[in-house]
Amino acid sequence: MGEEMVISKTKLFVWGLDRGMRGIHLREEFEPYGEVVFAKVNLDRETGRSKGFGFVEFANEEGAARAQREMDGKEVKGRSIKVDFAKEDPTKMYKREASAPVNTPAPAPQEAEDDETVVDENVF
Questions:
Q1: 41: β partners
Q2: DSSP SS3 for 97
Q3: DSSP string covering 20-64, please?
Q4: Are the CB atoms for 55 and 124 separated by under 8 Å?
Q5: FRET partner for 67 with CA separation of 20 to 30 A, picked from 30, 81, 87, 113?
Q6: Fold designation for 6-104
């Protein structure tokens, strides 16, 4: 059927989030562990409310590993969160990497817009 999912070394899946959290809050919680490339909380398309989970991607593996160890089970906004490495569809990962221009810096993160992005949950 489809490709096997691969476990990311730099992207974390975070769940158990307070429904009021947004990407900027997630970023603030994870920045002490390393350079955060992006952080977003997934929202329900119809209601605009948080689904209680999101993603944080680090610039390097060390920051992601440290954040996963130290943030898993930590209380954030009154809730104990769970943090694990994200699973990704390799066909979409490679298409994303292949479509990026060579030697061009990545665009700056857009916290407010990330909160409005609805991600296909089956990919992760």
A1: 54
A2: helix
A3: T--HHHHHHHHGGGS-EEEEEEEE-TTT--EEEEEEEEESSHHHH
A4: yes
A5: 113
A6: Alpha-Beta Plaits (3.30.70)
Question: What's the CA gap between 43 and 119, in Å, rounded?
Answer: 9
Per-residue pLDDT of the chain (124 residues; tens, 9 = 90+): 456 889 999 999 999 999 989 999 999 999 999 999 999 999 988 988 889 999 999 999 999 999 999 999 999 999 999 999 999 887 765 444 444 444 434 444 444 444 444 444 434 3
Give me the torsion for CA of 17, 21, 26, 28, rounded to 10°.
-130
- What tokens appear for 30 in the block? 């994870």
pTM for this predicted structure: 0.71
Please give the structure tokens belonging to residue 27: 């970023």
Q: Decide: 32 and 26 in contact? Cβ < 8 Å.
A: no
